[in-house]
């Protein structure tokens, strides 16, 4: 919890949107380390970023922190937003809009920090000196650099590019002169032409830091041993510890801790030795490891000590805090840490008792922000899967008060910002008088037992709508638990979601009458999306997974909002979509409009699956609050610019059906 010192003030949208961040935004304890420790273990480098609403941009900087005395200084400032992309169902470099920071790597001699920086629309490798204020661009590739590493002697940097992408784009443009052939290269949801395919190769090169000569990297003939994450015991380099899959060929197999020495391999067979997010050799030959107790512990992490052999590990402590990328600096772990009301910072965590001591907080102003109480609610789905949620009450809450409830999805680890996609500002909503239920969905049915491959995994999740049913019943139980606390008005429950969370919303609206309104960031899983808006390649996958084919009914009567528009009286729905994905909503919007159901949609330009522009996030936050205030409190913002918005919403209010008749049955 944040230590409250002195008078506090209400949180604002700007406070949340313009927080200083570092590392990937994912709140997963097993994700890549969001900071870099120098070889002499005396300095930390982090890549800071901060959104700026007024300029609709981001500020980036490379910060050096001394572990000796805590002093800090910037090694470099500048650059454009770095966003994530991946190969998606055969398409190369599909961006998703998630803004992140560069990975960092120290030179072997500890005198330089290398990182990636984007300028003028191109990402290159840069380096900055530990001493002095010199930052310089290292690579000048004609395309983006994707990843990099230092040579073992520190005289060169190895980097990876994908130079075939511009060539593929040029070939597609040439094809357009005689018309594009409509085939598996199309993604009609967001593009009117074929897209480069995922078979475009990556190219690895090396740049000599003295001569600046660039050469190709020879393919290595050495095969991975399966122990590429192995860590040697400091006093016995022949003794190794590593993480390995329980079922090597399975999809999402549990990961287990193992060791090997001259005496052979030892496997930690205890249940605690799975879901390990980090491990370290201690001086006495034991292994310290962090375990993710997401579901059994309501999102907690536990530190264990294990002496390789038949004895079970011993748990030292458990914490509600999210710890990411820890390194052992005895007698503490140095970690990135978040709490429900604490943005990411660097802390020392005592090995013996888990006591947390702040080391560097990039957002010291947050201590002046007023936040409400947070309670963890453990829940179980109808089929017995564990889940949990965080219930946040308004800072001004008094016993006996009943607040409207807003459901935010679909993960709830670490700092409660705005849910997956960051569009529903939890602490801001609480300060406005809402109780907020931050829901963390249960594990997917296809994961236990592990599926042999991705296709089997998805088929198991989809069969009988097993995943949707599991998520909904766990969420329903979480809402019941929140209401049972006596601070929630059960007649004023709103539900929100993006991506998988939006699918949960659609399913929930067809299963329950308890929701007074809904807000979607993406919409919707309908026949039009799976059968033709996503293109031939994705449609072939969905049929393989068990989606109904074109013209088939299948499970759509239990899942499609569009097909139930006439039968189900949906509550007022707001959609705030990106221009890349709004076409997914067209079938739903048209069907609900035709059935005179209350629905409104906004489309944000130059956005992707996750909306990355700060001014758009500010507008989304504002409209979320306006919509909730209008439908839950009957309140309106008097700003002249918003009067057209309220005119439309008043017209929608005339078509709101009675919730009591939304579904048949009790």
> Which structural class fits the helix and strand makeup?
alpha+beta
Shape: globular
Question: What is the CA-atom radius of gyration, in angstroms?
Answer: 26 Å
Terminus-to-terminus distance: 42 Å
How large is the share of residues in beta strands?
25-35%
Provide the residue-averaged pLDDT.
Answer: 91
The spatial strand order of the largest sheet comes to: 28-29-31-30-32-33-34-35
User: How large is the count of helical segments?
Assistant: 12
| Main sheet record | 8 strands, mixed
Low-confidence stretches: 220-225, 660-666
Query: Considering DSSP H and I runs of 4 or more, what fraction of the residues is helical?
Result: 10-25%
Number of strands: 35
> What kind of assembly state do the chains in view correspond to?
single chain
Characterize the structure shown.
With 666 residues, the chain is an alpha+beta fold. Helix content is 19%, strand content 34%. The protein has twelve helices and 35 strands. The model is unreliable at 220-225 and 660-666 (pLDDT under 50). Residues 470-629 form the Peptidase S9 prolyl oligopeptidase catalytic domain. Keywords: Hydrolase, Protease, Serine protease. This is Atxe2 family lasso peptide isopeptidase.
């Amino acid at each position: 919890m944040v230590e409250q010192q002195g008078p506090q003030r209400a949180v604002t949208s700007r406070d949340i949107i313009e927080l200083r961040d570092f590392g990937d935004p994912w709140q997963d304890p097993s994700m890549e380390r969001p900071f870099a420790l120098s070889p002499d273990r005396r300095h930390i480098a982090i890549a800071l970023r901060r959104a700026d609403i007024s300029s609709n941009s981001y500020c980036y900087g490379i910060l050096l922190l001394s572990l000796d005395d805590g002093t800090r200084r910037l090694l470099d400032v500048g650059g454009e937003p770095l966003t994530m992309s991946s190969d998606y169902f055969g398409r190369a470099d599909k961006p998703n809009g998630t803004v992140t920071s560069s990975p960092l790597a120290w030179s072997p001699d500890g005198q330089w920090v290398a990182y990636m920086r984007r300028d003028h629309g191109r990402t290159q490798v840069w380096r900055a000196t530990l001493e002095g204020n010199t930052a310089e661009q290292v690579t000048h590739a004609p395309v983006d650099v994707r990843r990099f590493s230092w040579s073992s002697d520190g005289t060169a940097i190895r980097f990876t590019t994908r130079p075939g992408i511009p060539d593929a784009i040029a070939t597609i443009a040439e094809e357009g002169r005689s018309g594009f052939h409509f085939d598996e290269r199309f993604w009609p949801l967001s593009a009117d032409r074929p897209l480069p395919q995922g078979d475009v190769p990556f190219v690895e090169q090396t740049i000599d830091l003295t001569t600046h000569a660039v050469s190709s990297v020879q393919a290595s003939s050495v095969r991975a041993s399966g122990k590429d994450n192995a860590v040697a015991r400091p006093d016995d380099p022949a003794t190794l510890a590593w993480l390995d899959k329980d079922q090597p060929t399975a999809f999402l197999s549990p990961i287990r801790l193992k060791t090997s020495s001259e005496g052979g391999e030892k496997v930690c067979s205890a249940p605690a030795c799975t879901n390990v997010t980090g491990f370290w050799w201690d001086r006495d030959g034991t292994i310290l490891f962090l375990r993710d107790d997401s579901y059994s512990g309501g999102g907690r992490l536990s530190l264990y000590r294990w002496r390789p052999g038949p004895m079970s590990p011993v748990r030292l402590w458990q914490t509600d805090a999210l710890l990411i990328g820890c390194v052992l600096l005895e007698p503490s772990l140095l970690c990135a840490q978040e709490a429900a009301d604490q943005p990411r910072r660097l802390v020392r965590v005592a090995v013996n008792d888990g006591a947390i001591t702040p080391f560097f907080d990039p957002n010291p102003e947050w201590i002046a922000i007023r936040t409400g109480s947070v309670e963890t609610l453990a829940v179980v789905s109808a089929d017995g899967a564990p889940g949990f949620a965080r219930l946040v009450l308004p800072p001004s809450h008094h016993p006996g008060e009943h607040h409207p409830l807003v459901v935010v999805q679909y993960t709830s680890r670490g700092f409660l910002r705005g849910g997956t996609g960051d569009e529903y500002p939890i602490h801001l909503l609480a300060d406005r008088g809402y109780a907020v239920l931050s829901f963390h969905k249960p594990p997917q049915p296809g994961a236990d037992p592990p599926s042999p491959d991705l296709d089997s995994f998805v088929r198991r999740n989809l069969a009988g709508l097993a995943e949707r049913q599991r998520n909904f019943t766990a969420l329903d139980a979480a809402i019941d638990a929140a209401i049972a606390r006596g601070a929630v008005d059960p007649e004023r429950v709103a539900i929100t979601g993006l991506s998988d969370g939006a699918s949960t919303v659609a399913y929930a609206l067809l299963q329950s009458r308890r929701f007074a309104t809904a807000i979607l960031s993406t919409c919707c899983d309908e026949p039009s999306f799976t059968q033709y808006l996503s293109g031939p390649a994705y449609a072939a996958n969905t049929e393989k997974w068990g989606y109904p084919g074109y013209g088939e009914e299948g499970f759509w009567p239990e899942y499609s909002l569009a097909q139930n528009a006439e039968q189900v009286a949906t509550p007022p729905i707001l959609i705030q979509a990106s221009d890349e994905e709004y076409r997914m909503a067209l079938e739903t919007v048209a069907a609900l409009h035709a059935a005179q159901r209350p629905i409104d949609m906004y489309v944000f330009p130059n956005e992707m699956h996750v909306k990355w522009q700060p001014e758009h996030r500010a507008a989304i936050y504002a409209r979320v609050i306006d919509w909730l205030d209008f439908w839950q409190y009957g309140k309106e913002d008097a700003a002249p610019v918003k009067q057209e918005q309220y005119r439309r919403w008043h017209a929608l209010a005339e078509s709101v059906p009675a919730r009591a008749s939304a579904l048949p049955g009790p």
